[in-house]
């Protein structure tokens, strides 16, 4: 193998930034191995310098420089480029993806840098898993608090890669956040260690499995959405079922009433032992189906315009061991005409047509009836409250703001959920 470190000086020489995987030098092509030995200067993480020195042996070769402190490296790179030296810098994965590339471009002319990325840890992880990743998203915990991960989980991504930082947010923190979000049952938890190295390891952990005692600091976590196992209905809590146990709409995962809000809505409905409950804009059916668990004598009619709602709500009902009177895949208020008059109504949808929907409900609500509306905006409250008052209902307004504990170093940080306004109207009983 050629090994001349000195060579003809090139006017306007380039900085070749070469990505590597966990295999380091052993994973490079013969072409790049030769280019490294022919260079005048090679900068690399300290862990690779000893390998380069051993590899070149006694033959003359490039000057070696540690790149672990990139800001200290920049003046030397600028000097070598100005002298026309051949310079190679070894980096991890794709230097332009959470790598040294951004810093180099801030301080060196872009036209003097040429990047040669290796597969990122993200690419390697999905390749090892054998799963397409065009629908995947990622989040980095490097130097960051893990709180944004809690917010990301509430959106229920189909696949989420978490770039861990053992000093701030490693696998244990990711698992803790998953548990705190009530989503352990909804995700397969994969650990990927030392990807690209001969000793790489990919393993799936069940919720009860401990983390491996020899967990490598060089790891990432893959969270892959999975259909939660069918629970034994008798083993479920009476109400407040964890979010992760509900089947979701595949095109809009996470679009459901969160557990904390669900509990409040069930209380505000003042559920009767018997009677008719309308759940309008039922989503995945969570509030209405939990109402049936509390009051099996109720007659539940769920209305949801989304295609596939009947099958999904029916499947969730089977998981909970309850049976609604019917699920209508149709637009409200037109769909309400065929239903019996309600004693209790939950309006979870409506959008721009919320006023007409509420007026229709108020025209059908029985004496002593209750209507409850969770609202995301104060404008919705301003629109709907006068309609309840004009119809002679007693009105109550509540704001629900809940936080969920998220692991933070040795303590717990509270991650907020979106606040929800709850508008409740109660019609006087027949006198």
From TrEMBL:
Pathway this chain belongs to: Cofactor biosynthesis; adenosylcobalamin biosynthesis
Gene assigned in the entry: cbiE
Keyword Transmembrane helix: no
Organism encoding this protein: Cyanobium gracile UHCC 0281
Domain Tetrapyrrole methylase residue range list: 34-202
Pfam families (alphabetical): TP_methylase (PF00590)
S-adenosyl-L-methionine is among the record's keywords: yes
Name by which UniProt lists this protein: Precorrin-6y C5,15-methyltransferase (Decarboxylating) subunit CbiE
InterPro entries recorded: 4pyrrol_Mease, 4pyrrol_Methylase_sf, 4pyrrole_Mease_sub1, 4pyrrole_Mease_sub2, CbiE, Cbl_synth_CobL, Cbl_synth_MTase_CbiT, Cobalamin_biosynth_MTase
Keywords from the UniProt entry: Cobalamin biosynthesis, Methyltransferase, S-adenosyl-L-methionine, Transferase
